[in-house]
Design a protein that fits this description.
15% strand, alpha/beta, binds zinc ion, 8 strands, 47% helix, 3-stranded antiparallel beta sheet, binds adenosine-5'-diphosphate
């Protein structure tokens, strides 16, 4: 019987590199990135009921309620492409979400394959998040200082020239988000340590260096 598709979790504060690394793991391993932040931003843009409820909370740098996030995640996990294996980027973020994920996976006879904690310094995260921008065409992430496109103003991936910045990527909101991370999300590290699936990855180095450490872990756990 073929091995079950991996369920990987990327844990880490805002700016740790979850989105950047998740996109590269998609390329390297054919997995599907599932970002609750992206799903919530899409709901806000579409003006759905969930989006309306989430908007102000996100702008304030606080966590959206478990009910809303879980409803959005369940819908996304019902799509057929998740059968390739998933990388959860920015989910779970609370003990309630982690318990709900365990229950959802158990129903399908699955469990978390690995939860990777990207270990970084808070102070450096303010600079990472403040300089972040993405391609409006394909969503590729960039940074004013740390990851510029090869040709200024042109996306490396799709050739697009329209870029956007998130309203919540300012120094003040990032501090609030870092606090939310430490209070509500960092305790999940122990949850996954108890399940013997925790992998700690030092993530202050280069994007390429972190990518190769993650590739080693994913290759090992999905073998
Ligand atoms: P997260 O999804 O964890 O919030 P991102 O992947 O969006 O983080 O990365 C935040 C910003 O920092 C982006 O602008 C990205 O280009 C940049 N970045 C990501 N990883 C690194 C790294 N290892 N070194 C320097 N900059 C990085
Ligand atoms: P980052 O990449 O900087 O960590 P995200 O894009 O993952 O940020 O999330 C942006 C915002 O969306 C969060 O500050 C929070 O308000 C909301 N959000 C995203 N994922 C979750 C989640 N799993 N639970 C609660 N709120 C979430
Ligand atoms: Zn692009």
């Amino acid at each position: 019987m073929a091995a079950k598709p991996p369920v990987l979790i990327l844990l880490g504060p805002p700016g740790a590199g979850k989105g950047t690394q998740a996109r590269m793991l998609e390329e390297d391993f054919g997995l599907v990135q599932l970002s609750t932040g992206d799903l919530l931003r899409a709901a806000v843009s579409a003006g759905t009921e969930a989006g309306k409820a989430a908007k102000a909370v996100m702008e304030a740098g606080q966590l959206v309620s478990d009910d809303i996030v879980l409803a959005i995640l369940r819908d996304r996990m019902a799509q057929p492409d998740v059968a390739k294996g998933i990388i959860l980027d920015g989910f779970p973020r609370t003990a309630g979400q982690a318990a709900a994920l365990d229950a959802l996976l158990a129903k399908a006879g699955q469990r978390v394959t690995a939860a990777v904690s990207l270990e970084v310094d808070d102070e450096a995260m303010i600079a990472r998040v403040s300089g972040r921008y993405t391609c409006g065409g394909c969503g590729e992430g960039y940074h004013d200082e740390f990851k510029q496109p090869a040709k200024a103003g042109v996306c490396d991936k799709c050739g697009g020239t329209g870029f956007k910045r998130r309203a919540d990527d300012n120094a003040e909101t990032v501090r609030e988000r870092l606090q939310a991370y430490h209070a509500q999300t960092a305790p999940l590290i122990t949850h996954y340590e108890c399940q013997s699936v925790l992998e700690r990855v030092p993530a202050m180095g280069s994007i390429a260096g972190v990518r190769s450490m993650l590739a080693g872990i994913v290759g090992r756990v999905s073998a």
